[in-house]
């Protein structure tokens, strides 16, 4: 069968679920309430740099704020656990001078009905909570990802408690400590690496072996700038990502989009496709284009390596069993002015413009919709629709996309 025919089938399967996903997403809470929560969380806990070496107090405060917020969200939610994963690593803030650091990942697991069965399809949603030493960048990088993750968890908790939706498959929310590599190029083993090797690997080895749907990593998702020319591209971008390069050019180098980073020959293609579909359905005005970047082995360049530093990479590199994962990112320092305060430590709440908060909300609503079609049986809550058929058509879509990809 031709590829376009298969995609057509996928599109039809999705069309049938559209109304339901929308009603599920919009019934949870209104946008102005969500925006209010983003503002207060970002202002109170993520406005200052949280570098483990240089801003230890803020770093530890941010960690407790995440735990407290999760405790509020998880209150009364059945079958949920929160655990702290301790690990020890080294960071080199100055070249060749490493410091031992004790890190902590915060892991929240919503066990689905299929937990402990081979039919489970575990989904991970993760974001790192430490930051670089740079003051201004830290509210976006990666306060925005953490706040989006918390809001998605809150939406899921509401669906389970208030709408009585049934969670079919397991979802893990992980706040990673110690990002994998600081953008100044000093490599280190970060929290996501310890999570994949020491936590996720154990769960995926349990008998009977569960499936793994993938990981969605959020790293800087709020830096919006609609001025032409505000987007700068790292060197070699045109070679590594020719299609995306064309899209950025046509878009007049506006920094108004988000990148969805994926990798060739990995099952993440299924994730990409469904996320992009749900993104497009949420962004009806086309205010926040989604530009896909596919990492290809044959197209190495400095630009390619810019997208191989974040927390999705340990999933891709897992042993001999690469795990599907995608990265959602605004490209952070490559866009607009991120460092207005220079080297001085300042409060970066001036970055919280309406457009930026709306872009953050676009991420949250897209992931809500993704979860509601991939993981929830909402039929108890939505009388007219059937959760079973929603779930079935998502599986059909995944299968279809996979077949199309293999052809
Ligand atoms: C919690 O998990 C157990 C075991 O999987 C299951 O029997 C029970 O129905 C779940 N409770 C809820 C409210 O989902
Ligand atoms: C760091 O160590 C490497 C080799 O271990 C050496 O080549 C390099 O010059 C050192 N850099 C500095 C700044 O000392
Ligand atoms: C957008 O980026 C331009 C640089 O291209 C900068 O001059 C401007 O201040 C930025 N706007 C915002 C709101 O950050
Ligand atoms: C989403 O919209 C973009 C821009 O209109 C389009 O290029 C892309 O194919 C769409 N993706 C999906 C999966 O619908
Ligand atoms: C940053 O500034 C805002 C508004 O001026 C204030 O409400 C907030 O408490 C400040 N945050 C920190 C961490 O100082
Ligand atoms: C979804 O829930 C309905 C009603 O509670 C139930 O009949 C159906 O079997 C469930 N579907 C799945 C896939 O669990
Ligand atoms: C320090 C770090 O890893 N920051 C990353 C945050 O996200 C941006 C955009 O993806 C990356 O460019 C940074 O490297």
From TrEMBL:
Alphabetical list of SUPFAM superfamilies matching this protein: Zn-dependent exopeptidases
InterPro entries: M28_fam, Peptidase_M28
Keywords for this protein: Signal
Domain Peptidase M28: 105-197
GO molecular function, one term: metalloexopeptidase activity
Superkingdom of the organism of origin: Eukaryota
Annotated signal sequence range: 1-21
Cofactor needs: Zn(2+)
GO biological process: proteolysis
Entry similarity comment: Belongs to the peptidase M28 family. M28B subfamily.
PANTHER family the record matches: METALLOPEPTIDASE M28 FAMILY MEMBER, PEPTIDASE M28 DOMAIN-CONTAINING PROTEIN
UniProt protein name: Peptidase M28 domain-containing protein
